[in-house]
Amino acid sequence: MINENKPEGGKKNKALPVIIAIIAVLVLALIVVLAMNSNSSKTTDNKTPQTNNNQTQTENPSDNPMDLEDDGPDMVGEVEGELIEENMTPEQEALAEAEEVIDGGNKVSRDNKVLTREGKVTRNDVEPMSPDAPQQTGPISDPNSLPEEVIKITMTASGVEPASFNVSAGAPVSLSVTSGDKYTHIFKFNDETLSAVAVGVGPNETRAITFQAPDAAGEYSIYCDVPGHTARGETAVMVVQ
Ligand SMILES: [Cu+2]
Among 76, 88, 167, 240, which has the minimal tally of Cβ within 10 Å of its Cβ? Predict the structure, then answer.
């Protein structure tokens, strides 16, 4: 019996490490499972925003009833268009509707006002090429391409051609100035109310300008502002009718 017990006790003694090992394995397994759970809970945390996104995405289709009313998107576009127009200043609106008589010249509004680059009505009594002044264009490579309505003026040492031309009071005027010789010429009015209207051209060059004719009828004298040129007869007259 004792011998039997001994082996039994020996069995118990042998079983104990095995039990401990099993417990250890179980604890390890538990730790691993817990760790995996915590990881998986983190990943589900990461997933929750995605599911939120999915929810918001599914919320968008819930807007579909709005979309189904076909006017929805168009209405938005129209509203935006109206907002843009509402935000435009009167100057910007006038400029948007204005038309250019000469390439690079000032635009003319629907109510026949010569506009600045900012859409304001130009002033004729300021410094030439200042922001409010009508601006001379760059050199025009093909003067023959200018519209018929443009008054074509040629300046040479012999004088100004034509020496007289007519314009309508208060109306937009487009005129080109050509140097018909090897000299530089500067077209200017001998009148403070038209000080802004000036065109300078190099030898055989053509430039142009669009400006508002004076409201007051009368004769406005023109001269070449290059020293000595007026004395040799470079003058003309603009008749406002
Ligand atoms: Cu001259």
Answer: 76
